[in-house]
């Protein structure tokens, strides 16, 4: 695991607690707060797209926050954007490549307001010890309970309880882990 990169320390809105592994090219943007906790790792070697993409974290506005917990591993090409609220990823969570997470639609759904900044954001909370497969998108307002598994290719637009497996087929299916 790598020690914190010096460039991360130079950004006043980025807080690193302990050692953070940065494996893939990392782009940090925004006016909000980004917290990377001890033992989290951003990017994976060897894994596809290590050299062809980037890891993108943006806490866009001054009210936006991204918090990545302890010992969280996120594979390559992740895009996490907190526009006006918060995105939190709990300790010991594993996330596959090409992960996308937004707290916003970035535009109003109302046709007359689409080009304005008059839209709402809703926080995202991913619990502890969650396993998220490759190519998963998590949309605004979602909470995922502890210990749950999100299957590859899922688009999550509703809350997921703790201790379940979610897989996408022709329709959303939720299975109890017990």
Automatic annotation (TrEMBL):
GO molecular function term, any single one: O-acyltransferase activity
Entry's transmembrane regions:
none
Q: Which domain of life is it from?
A: Bacteria
Question: Has UniProt tagged this entry with the keyword Zinc?
Answer: no
Cited InterPro entries: Hexapep, Hexapep_transf_CS, Hexapeptide_acetyltransf, Trimer_LpxA-like_sf
- Keywords, comma-separated and alphabetical: Acyltransferase, Repeat, Transferase
Q: Which GO terms describe its cellular component?
A: cytosol
| Family annotation (PANTHER family) | ACETYLTRANSFERASE C18B11.09C-RELATED, SIALIC ACID SYNTHASE-RELATED
- Name the family: Belongs to the transferase hexapeptide repeat family.
Could you tell me what this protein is called?
A: Transferase hexapeptide repeat containing protein
Organism (species): Shewanella baltica (strain OS195)
């Amino acid at each position: 695991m790598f020690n914190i990169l010096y460039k991360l320390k130079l950004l006043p809105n980025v807080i690193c607690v302990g050692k953070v592994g940065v494996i893939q090219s990392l782009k940090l943007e925004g006016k909000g707060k980004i917290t990377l906790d001890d033992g989290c790792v951003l990017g994976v070697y060897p894994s596809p797209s290590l050299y062809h993409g980037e890891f993108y974290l943006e806490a866009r506005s001054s009210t936006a926050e991204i918090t990545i917990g302890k010992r969280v591993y996120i594979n390559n090409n992740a895009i996490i954007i907190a526009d006006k609220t918060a995105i939190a990823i709990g300790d010991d969570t594993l996330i596959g490549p090409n992960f996308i997470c937004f707290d916003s639609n970035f535009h109003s759904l109302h046709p007359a307001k689409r080009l304005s900044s008059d839209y709402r954001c809703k926080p995202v909370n991913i619990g502890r010890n969650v396993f998220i497969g490759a190519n998963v998108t998590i949309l605004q307002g979602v909470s995922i309970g502890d210990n749950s598994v999100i299957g590859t290719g899922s688009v999550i637009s509703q809350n997921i309880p703790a201790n379940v497996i979610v897989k996408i087929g022709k329709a959303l299916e939720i299975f109890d882990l017990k």
